[in-house]
Amino acid sequence: MSEALRVSGTVLPEGERRDLYVVDGHVTYEPPAESTTVAEGWIVPGLVDAHCHVGLDPKGAVPEDVQEQQATDDRDAGTLLIRDCGTAADTRWIDDRADLPRIIRAGRHIARTKRYIRNYAHEVEPLELSDYVAQEAKRGDGWVKLVGDWIDRDIGDLGPCWPRDALEAAMRTAHDHGARVTAHVFGEHALPDLIGAGIDCIEHGTGLSTDLIDTMAANRVALVPTVKQLNNFPKYASAAGEKFPDYATHMTELFERRRETIGAAHEAGVPIYAGTDAGGVLPHGLIADEVAELATYGLSAVEALGAASWRAREWLGMPATLVEGAPADLVIYSSDPLADLRVLTSPSRIILRGRVVR
Ligand SMILES: [Zn+2]
Asked: Tag placement on the chain: N or C end, fewer CB within 10 Å?
C-alpha cells in the first residue's frame, strides 16, 4: 500500500468542506490511520479537454518527445483527461505513463480527398468511408472523427464533404463497433445530414440553426464549440483573402454570430463541453482560457467549469465527481474558481492516479 495523502477543503461541485484522502490511487473519505497533508483549498475533479490533439503540430505528426511535452503542458494546466479528437501520430505509449493524462482517442481524422489540412487525415472517398470508420473505431478508444465540411476549392466556399447515404453507413458501422462519432463542422450545409444520420457530437458548430439545435437537444447530441479556436476565424478568412472571397465572407459571418449560435445551443439544452483544439494551430495547456471564454457565451461559471470537469467526465464514461472509490484525479486551487474562473490558470496541486504530479 502506498502512503495515504490528505487534501482538505471545499470539494466541487457540491461545495462541501471535507477531508479527502487518497489511498492506492482512489478517493476515500474514511480517514486512514496515517496520512500526509499535501494540499488545502478548493478541490475540483480532474479537468477534461474534450477536443485536443496530442501528437500533432501544424505540419502533421510529431515525435514522441514533442508528444510528451504536449501531454505535460496539458497536465500542468490541470487537464487529466483528454478526448483526443484525431491525430496522425501513434500516442499509445502514453497509456503506460502514470504521470501523463488519460487519453480517450478518436483514431486518425477521416477526411474527403484533398479536403483537409495536409498530413493530418486519412483522405478517402465516400465508398471507402465505412471501412475507414471501422478501422479507426478499432484503433481508437470509443470515438471516430470525421471532417464534415471544409473549403471546396471548386465552389470557393465551405461545402459538405460526404453524401447522406455514406454518412448513414458510417454511423451504423461506428455504432456497431461500439464507437461514437464526431465531426468537424464550421458551416451550415453539412450539419443536416450529419445530425440526421445520427451523429453523437459536433465540433465547432458555428453553422447551427435553431431547428438543428432543437434536434441536437432532443437526441442529446453534444457540442464542443472550441471557443478559443473560433477567435481564429478572422485569420482564416483573411488568409483565404482574394483567392476565395466567398469563403472569407462566410467565415467572417460565422465568426460574427458565434456567440448567438453557441449561446442558443446552450439555451436549448444541448450538452456543451470544453475543448481547446490544441495541437494544430493552438498550443497545449489552455483549458483555463477555454473555460473563461465559454463563460462569455452564456454559460455561468458553474456550467463552464462543469463543461471542463464533472459533466465532461461523466460524458466520457468516468465517475463525474470525487465520490468514495473514484480514481484520484483532482486539481486543487488556493481560492474558489467559481468566484473567479481566472483562478483556474494557477493550480496549487495536481494529483493524477493518486500521485502528486505537480
Ligand atoms: Zn481539432
From this structure: N
Residue 45: its H or E element: strand 36-45
Beta strands in 120-230 (DSSP E): 122-124, 143-147, 149-152, 157-160, 180-185, 201-204, 222-224
The CA 109 to ligand 1 mean position distance, Å, reads 9
| Residue 198 alpha carbon to ligand 1 centre in Å | 21
Residue-wise pLDDT tens digits, 55-71: 999 999 999 999 999 99
CB contact burial 203-233 (16+ within 10 A = b; e otherwise): bbbbbbeeebbebbbeeebbbbbbbbbbebb
CA of 277 to the centre of ligand 1 (A): 5
- Give CA–CA dist 118/127, Å, rounded: 21
**In this structure, are residues 270 and 311 in contact, taking their beta carbons and an 8 Å threshold?**
no
Quick: pLDDT tens for 79-123: 999 999 999 999 999 999 999 999 999 999 999 999 999 999 999
Separation of CA 52 and ligand 1 centre (Å)? 6
Distance (Å) from CA 122 to ligand 1 centroid: 15
